[in-house]
Design brief:
Structural class: alpha/beta
Strand content: 15-25%
Low-confidence stretches: none
Shape: elongated
Largest sheet: 6 strands, parallel
Number of helices: 7
Radius of gyration: 20 Å
Strand order of the largest sheet: 3-2-1-4-5-12
């Protein structure tokens, strides 16, 4: 195995690149590792190895890149809600005959005391907010989908993101520019400071932003949880970096290299 392409932008993608840096974590000495980032964050935390920023031009462009750069394995470690990128990865891998793995951290699981209201989409979350008794919303679904809530003029929103949101977004908006991981004490203080009475989040999984769920549980606050989309059909998935490394080793052995 000579070249692995990681579609990254997540903690898991960065940790996989770190594990493969140098000697390839036993997968293959001198392994070339390229991480591709979408470029939606102005100052991303860069993984080790080669890094490219920006899109490929759809599934066809990605397939051409895989062939041109002689990629032996493709790992889709993008955000669980990056539907378009994951679909393009599946199509590109199939047409270029490159093995593909979807590295996706498990979703969150409610525990006793949680008051979760699952919704199918951001629009569904906006509908629930419009029909509910709440007034101050901690909106943690990312800055790219704020347009779904732009019409809710009767609510005040707190949005936390790495970069400042751009319109369209809700009229009454407080913005915190910050990057996880976050702490439970910090989330408790934030909910009190802004008098939050409902939290809205995507089921992103992982530990970096999970403390908000514990803080909401302690405060007795409801949480609107946007369900994650399914992975593309026929694509093998892994929950952890260790599983991804084992898959790469299996690919190497099958290739006889």
């Amino acid at each position: 195995m000579r070249h692995v392409l990681i579609l990254g932008g997540t903690t898991e993608g960065r940790r996989l690149a770190e594990a493969l840096a140098g000697v390839g974590a036993g997968v293959a000495p001198g392994l070339r590792v390229t991480s591709s980032l979408a470029g939606r964050v102005a100052r991303p935390v860069l993984p080790p190895g080669e890094v490219r920023i920006g899109g490929f031009g759809g599934a066809g462009g990605l397939a051409a890149w895989l062939r041109e750069h002689r990629v032996d394995a493709l790992i889709d470690a993008t955000h669980p809600f990056a539907v378009t990128i994951s679909a393009n990865a599946a199509r590109a891998a199939a047409t270029s005959h490159v093995p593909l793995l979807r590295l996706r951290r498990p979703g969150w699981v409610p525990v006793p005391g949680d008051d979760w209201r699952r919704v199918a989409s951001l629009d569904g979350a906006a509908e629930a907010l419009a029909a509910g008794p709440w007034r101050r919303v901690f909106l943690t679904t990312g800055r790219m989908g704020l347009g779904a809530f732009a019409h809710l003029d009767g609510l005040r929103f707190l949005v936390r993101s790495v970069d400042a949101p751009e319109p369209p977004h809700p009229r009454h908006l407080d913005t915190l520019l910050d990057r996880g991981p976050f702490t439970l004490d910090g989330e408790r203080a934030l909910l009190r400071r802004y008098a939050i009475d409902v939290v809205v989040t995507k089921d992103s999984g992982g530990s970096a932003t999970a403390p908000k769920l514990a803080a909401a549980r302690e405060a007795g606050l409801p949480v609107l949880v946007v369900c994650r989309p399914p992975a593309p059909e026929g694509v093998r998935t892994a929950d952890t970096v260790a599983e991804a490394l084992a898959w790469l080793e299996a690919v190497r052995r099958r290739a006889g290299r």
